[in-house]
Amino acid sequence: MRLSQVYHRFSLIPLSPSLFHHFPKPLPFSSISPAKSHRSPLPIQAHFSTDYLKSTSMSSSSRFHCLIPVNAFAAENGASSNGAISSSATETTTSTAHDDNGNGYRLPPTEIRDIVDAPPLPALSFSPQRDKILFLKRRSLPPLSDLARPEEKLAGIRIDGKCNSRSRMSFYTGMGIHQLMDDGNLGPEKVVTGLPEGAKINFVTWSNDGQHLSFSVRVDEEDGSSSKLRVWVADLETGKARPLFQSPDIYLNAVFDNFVWVDNSTLLVCTIPQSRGDPPKKPLVPSGPKIQSNEQKSVIQARTYQDLLKDERDEVLFEYYATSELVLASLDGTIKPIGPPAIYTSLDPSPDEQYILITSIHRPYSFIVPCGRFPKRVEVWAADGRVVRELCDLPLAEDIPIAFNSVRKGMRSINWRADKPSTLYWVETQDNGDAKVEVSPRDIIYTQPAEPLENEQPTVLHQLDLRYGGISWCDDSLALVYESWYKTRKIRTWVISPGSKDISPRVLFDRSSEDVYSDPGSPMSRRTAAGTYVIAKVKKPDGDGTYILLNGSGATPEGNIPFLDLFDINTGKKERIWQSDKEKYYETVVALMSDQNEGDLYINDLKILTSKESKTENTQYYIQSWPEKKSCQITNFPHPYPQLASLQKEMIRYQRRDGVQLTATLYLPPGYDPSRDGPLPCLVWSYPGEFKSKDAAGQVRGSPNEFAGIGPTSPLLWLARRFAVLSGPTIPIIGEGDEEANDRYVEQLVASAEAAVEEVIRRGVAHPKKISIGGHSYGAFMAANLLAHAPHLFSCGIARSGAYNRTLTPFGFQNEDRTLWDATSTYVEMSPFMSANKIKKPILLIHGEEDNNSGTLTMQSDRFFNALKGHGALCRLVILPFESHGYTARESIMHVLWETDRWLHNYCTANSEDDNAESNSRKESECKAVGGAEGVKEFDDEDVIGLYHSRRRSLLW
């Protein structure tokens, strides 16, 4: 069982290493098969404290193996998902001696800094048998020195050559184990011992029997560089850890996949080839020019990827770091090299541990697409390393069309069936991967044994007219197949009987993915003895019917009210057996707890793990038990930022001038009284979204009772500075019917912003001349456009890591899949760069110098700033050394907060448009107070205004 990455609001989503740098658009009711979830480790950090767990046990569920409190991974749009790493940065290393235009790192006010520096809460993981709980320590924000380590940018990924792993990995600092007692209490902590001092721990993995942990360890070398990774194992009975390999010269290659349990005593490990020498050096004189050719006139369109291979030397360097040698290593010390050295990207043992699905990539490489599109070979090996057969060898995929739902040609999504010992399934497109081609069927799902009989052909499992979106397996009588189509937002769920050709597939749900009110929920899964996850069938006492559990978010016009339904798969009838308390709390079903034993699962024996929170109470976990539905709280996490414990939160609704219903979450500072305090300066922070219908755009998403998770760069930090914050006002860009949403982008953007501003002014909480707009990534694009096209609404803007000139992303961006040549006017009119001459309000631009996000090159901010400056705009550009699309180093984050706080004070709180009259009336008295009755002559206007604002700041801030 592998630890899974955790996202905002405790949504627990297992991701494979191949998804580290690209996250596809999620399907609202597409539950991708979780068969691999126990085999995909992620390097998540953790902080350790045993005071947080109150009593009884927690467990992993269908796809949920790791619980991390929200503040550990609160990330904004486009922000880094690595979470915290380590922090040794102190105020003594942060310059405060420079003026506002200096180059030193600065610190924000204490009330903001204290929230960001609050210690993170622990990461928790549960043994497969539910009898142990693992606490994983972590530290908070890393120092800039961690990001400054050299890295190689190759084939769309970034590699730490010292570690031979992905660069900028987070890590754990220690582990502790608690036994879950029969009475529901925790046994004493057993610290995992034997680790070297300063160990950085990654890729923590349970053996299937829950007796051992495997993980990687790295230790900083004396010169400050980071060492290579070694594989370690820990005996959970004794708590003692030791290296897996007796030889100190065997290192882990963690550029792609790293290691996996083949059985309870054997791991398959990607190691650095021991015959490998030093990295190839760049020649002083190139061997020739860099040449790319398209003499075949192929149509190849690609989005604006970054960190691609550039020349032959890059190709050699990529192979040097990515090539692994596979080694079977047993706990008794036996090792056996298997297979030839290659760039192995995935190792996936079959549920019966008899076979391994091996994926590798090979030449020819590409200079225009990342490694995920390189030629790919997929093979089935026996567990001892013998090659059973090659499933496919896919060619270079440079020609995947940019239209949404376009895919690679040939076999894809090759996986083991979760409900079978060693049966494979995969999908093949019938439209050559081009979503613009009309064909039926569009995708065909095949299945076949790992070792088919001679001349045995793959079996057609199901045919789809939309694009395949995954399978949830149960058994031969039941599986759910998902398909979707982005252009129409259509999404379907099919019920199939994999073991019976006589039972025809039928549509279970057919709906719009945008219609959150109709979302029936997703099936809950149970763990099998093989460590895979299948749909949990539930029986009633009378034994009639086939029931599954549907876990839904419960979107309603009043906000989300999560639920758990007992659903009859044959009749479609459902019974609500649990629902969140909608009056004060926001509760969700996290995991199925009563699946430890094989056999039937009865409703009266049901146990589930739920989370519970409110506007002011952070998330805690509970066990709900049937039939009495008794609730037992098992955690007692402290409030992560008690200084904002009494903040005010309200989900508000209002209307755009074209009738579209909009929503936003309004936050007000603790103790704010509108009658006493009057309107406040207001920060509006948002991110646009595309819709196909006005009705869908107007639906309410989220809950008014959710706890306010505050990340290290969250706009909610300015509640501590007495701001009103309008978070996530819906900015729908609607393209109904055949209309493309972006054809009226600016018009709809302005209309949505006007409605939001009018609402906060109408409520009397925001001063009309002191409203600022901000956003990250596509939200930065939005903010710049609003300052250009709606300058009457905002006093200033903050734009982080944005793209402002769409002609630099000519083959599509965001959800636009037309090219610049298909929609020239749309690209030009949407680009705030083209309207730089219209921006008269102050704008702060912030960008990571090493941004690797598609389209948001750092030069986007450079060129936009130059355009603004060329028209005399009041603007400021901050480039953060070593930072990527999201910001992680403590120095960087603190400086971003300082810059933002300064900008909001100078151009929002102390908005000169509103304060000129007051400033003029006070100017003489200010001067007299300083220099006497004749003192006015000793100051020029700039000195007086600066003095006035300094005093005003001390009063208001």
Shape verdict: globular
The biggest beta sheet reads:
8 strands, mixed
Question: How do the strands line up in the largest sheet?
Answer: 42-43-46-44-48-49-50-51
Q: In percent, how helical is the residue content?
A: 10-25%
Overview of the structural elements:
With 957 residues, the protein is an alpha+beta fold. The chain has 13 helices and 51 strands. The strands form 12 sheets. An 8-stranded mixed beta sheet has the order 42-43-46-44-48-49-50-51, with helices on both faces. Strands 15-16-17-18-19-20-21 form a 7-stranded antiparallel beta sheet, covered by helices on one side. Strands 30, 33, 34, 35, 36 and 38 form a 6-stranded mixed beta sheet that branches. A hairpin with a 4-residue loop joins strand 17 and strand 18 (335-349). It is globular, with a radius of gyration of 29 Å. The two termini are 50 Å apart.
Give the gist of this structure.
The chain has 957 residues and is α+β, with helices and mostly antiparallel strands. The protein contains 13 helices and 51 strands.
Keywords for this structure?
alpha+beta, single chain, 957 residues, disordered N terminus, globular, 7-stranded antiparallel beta sheet, 51 strands
